[in-house]
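Thread: SAM-dependent methyltransferase, structure

OP (GT): Posting the sequence first so everyone is looking at the same thing. Length is 390 residues per the record. Can we get the structure tokens written out before standup tomorrow? I want them in the notebook alongside the other entries.
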Amino acid sequence: MAEAVLLPGKEKRVQAGHPWVYRTEVGAVRGEFAPGDVVDIRDARGRYLGRGYANPASQIFIRFLTRQDEAIDRAFFRRRLELAAAYREKVVKDTTAYRLVNAEADFLPALIVDRYGAYLVVQFLSLGMERFKTLITDLLVELFSPQGIYERSDVAVREREGLALVTGPLYGEVPQFVEIDEGGTRFRVDLHAGQKTGFFLDQRENRRAVAELAAGARVLDCFCYTGGFAVSAARGGAAAVLGIDISGAALALARENAALNGVAERCTFHEANSFDALRHLAAAGERFDLVVLDPPAFTKSKEALPGAIRGYKEVNLRAMKLLPSGGFLVTCSCSYHLTEDLFLQVVAAAAHDARRTLRLVELRRQARDHPMLMNAPETYYLKCGIFQVF
């Protein structure tokens, strides 16, 4: 097996638990290997650090699979999948859809597995994990007996690994649309073409928090996608809900989800750019008791962060202007580069410019089936702040 030897001093971050070795941290590779092969990782003094798969074409040269001296074989991947499943047995309650494997945070780097009832949707996001696709698919069938497995490896990060974007069935037959149950709220999900693997499973616990605030409220849900927050708010007793999204196809599914839950008469969905809609609603003198903001990631790189900050500040400022004193703002960011501290600073700056005072009710994160590694800040991406506005 080939060995990657790190430059002097570059072992500290990975020794602390970070799962990646960057290309600029590798001093030499001893032995022959093909891109995607498993290699040993050693520090500059030759001490063993672990084992992972390598791709010299990627900025992330090596992704750790283990820090032990153990074989990377069928038994290894079976143990890791069983460990991931055991964790979900503890933390996932009252839902038929959840994340079964969360990549690095489940010690299976670049592998995503989401369960939607009887079906699994998977993503292989790196060359190294792509090499194990057949093995992992076989193990998923063996361990979880799904009716079908569908691949959604249509994420841009694969291109940085030298991989094509691919989708399609890996096992059995997988319908395009399935129905899931989330604490009694039902959603119709597009597994073949929906965002992420079909639904924003990472917001599940935050949807429940919104439902708890919604009784009797007039609710605005911006960037509503297929109505996750909107329908949850209506199910929580909202008097009226307006959902806004730029995708007509997503809104068609949102209307279906409202009808599926018997709340269609209290839910209205409007196709528009949410920034424009917020301006128009304010100009019209509209007011809402609860506003939810769940925008897409405004930045996927550190270089684009200043523009993203401006976008987050604007959307939060405009939302605050629609709230009466005592109203609630639920605002989210799924941009990893917008850290928690910076996220709070942006919301505070928006409140200052809007001449509003905020009371922090709760700071939430991604659902527990999307765990984070303490020494890998990249695994913490979703921030959800609940504020009362005065």
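GT: Both are above now. Quick notes for whoever picks this up: DSSP finds eleven helices and 20 strands in the chain. The radius of gyration is 22 Å.
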